[in-house]
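FYI - complex with iron/sulfur cluster, inputs then prediction.
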Amino acid sequence: MNQENSLEAEEKVILDDIASRLKVFGRERGELIPILQMIQERHAYIVEDAIKMTAEHLGIAICETYGVATFYNQFRFHPPGKNQIKVCLGTACHVRGGDIILENFERKLEIRDGETTPDREFSIERVVCVGCCALAPVAIVNETVQGHMAPSKVEGLILGFKIEKEKAEREKQKSEPAQ
Amino acid sequence: MAKLLVDNKEIEAKEGISLLQACLDNGIYIPNLCHIHGTDNPSASCRLCFVEIEGEDKPIPSCTVKAKDGIIVKTDTPSVRRLQCTAFKLLMSVHRVDCGHCPANKKCELQRIAKFLKVGLKPKYLELHLKETEVDESNPFLDYYPNRCVLCGKCIAVCKDKHGRAFLTFAKRGLDAVVSSYGEKDVSNLPCGKCLACIGICPVGAITSKDSPHQTA
Ligand code: SF4
Ligand code: SF4
Ligand code: FES
Ligand code: FES
């Protein structure tokens, strides 16, 4: 199965699940945010077609639903990547150049915060104070705190993941020789 | 009829209309972008229409108060001008000034305000924050230019007024905020092609018609 097909199949599973869950929600406007939260909680992001489904369920405009969903930072519109990068932009990190770190990740991976690379390897998110301001600027990479971030560290981290991936692929090839 | 004194000039206004509207009707210009004639709940979001009213300790957006009998109003005090200039500069710090290629050129409310306040269109000392998307072409009938939009919300209001529901909405927030017609692609029930009221009401050149891109108010 190529990447696009598997994505489609995955979305279909998600949408079927949402459709069955929607039945327990009322049809008042006030249900909009609870529904969006349910989708985000179960699937980690809001699939495009889910916005339309939600709008139809509540009988409100698609664009209005989109407007509400995009207003809150809480909601994501891209599936999380295999490696999740969270850059702290809390006060301490901001003062110490957290925004530059974010920009470095964005440039290196060619996506913006809230997005996922097309190969689903990486996603970037901005977060607020993660509680270790003394290490500012901080990034959390797959649950590991990376303190005193610097542009060279951004390069290093990403390179590390790429090397690891290549290694894993090579090993996979070795263990299942071409038939 | 209410009688009030604005900049030492006596004017008359229909009871119940906003102070801003009363001034505009009497040829007294006050900079404004988000004001909609006849509305009862002004969004007061552009922060340009400040005036001073005798007895009030701070300048007040004139679109948010009624033209009451006997009030004494000044539209051109130093504190009013300072507030207006600041609001205007902030607006222009997220604006792609390219009047030569803009359909609103010469009819644009921003050009009028700049001239009135005697400030340039490009603010000095403020970093320019432009959005990545220069034009959103997703609507089948309209093109939208985020870097021209002043987010006054008049297009959304007029759409809702005409059709009972808005086919446009605010999306995202902060520096990323835009007007969007996300998901409204079903041409069979989309009235935009015959309506274009949003283009007519937009104080700048942020929405254009795909059929006649040079048409504005
Ligand atoms: S919207 Fe007004 S100020 Fe902006 S480019 Fe167009 S004419 Fe110039
Ligand atoms: S498109 Fe025009 S009318 Fe609509 S919010 Fe932007 S500036 Fe205002
Ligand atoms: S502000 Fe980044 S850890 Fe506190
Ligand atoms: S016209 Fe009064 S705040 Fe915009």
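The pocket of FE2/S2 (inorganic) cluster (ligand 3) is lined by residues A 88, 90-93, 129-133, 136, 138 (CB under 6 Å). The mean pLDDT of chain B is 94.
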